[in-house]
């Protein structure tokens, strides 16, 4: 997996499903750490 930074945006090249899973796990960990819990957007009922 290759990664880099271009201006304000980060980019990554994923070469296998295992790398995709690792990236997904890391992303979820960061979201949980920031929010204290994993939250989902919910649709309000009218």
Protein architecture, described:
By secondary structure, the protein is of the alpha+beta class. It has one domain. It contains one helix and two strands. It has one helix at residues 17-35; strands at residues 2-6, 9-13. The chain has a two-stranded antiparallel sheet. It is extended, with a radius of gyration of 15 Å. The model has no long low-confidence stretch (mean pLDDT 75).
- The 3D shape can be described as extended
Largest sheet: 2 strands, antiparallel
The order of strands across the largest sheet is: 1-2
The value of Rg in angstroms is 15 Å
Task: Return residue spans where pLDDT drops below 50 for at least 5 consecutive residues.
Answer: none
In percent, how helical is the residue content? 40-55%
In short:
Helix content is 41%, strand content 22%. The protein has 46 residues and is α+β, with helices and mostly antiparallel strands.
Topology of this protein?
Blueprint: E1 2-6, E2 9-13, H1 17-35
Antiparallel strand pairs: 1-2
Question: What key phrases describe this protein's structure?
Answer:
46 residues, alpha+beta, 2 strands
């Amino acid at each position: 997996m290759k990664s880099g930074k271009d201006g304000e945006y980060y980019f990554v090249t994923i070469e296998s499903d295992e790398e995709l899973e690792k990236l997904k796990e890391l992303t979820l960990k960061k979201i949980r750490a920031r929010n204290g819990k994993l939250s989902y957007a919910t649709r309000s009922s009218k």
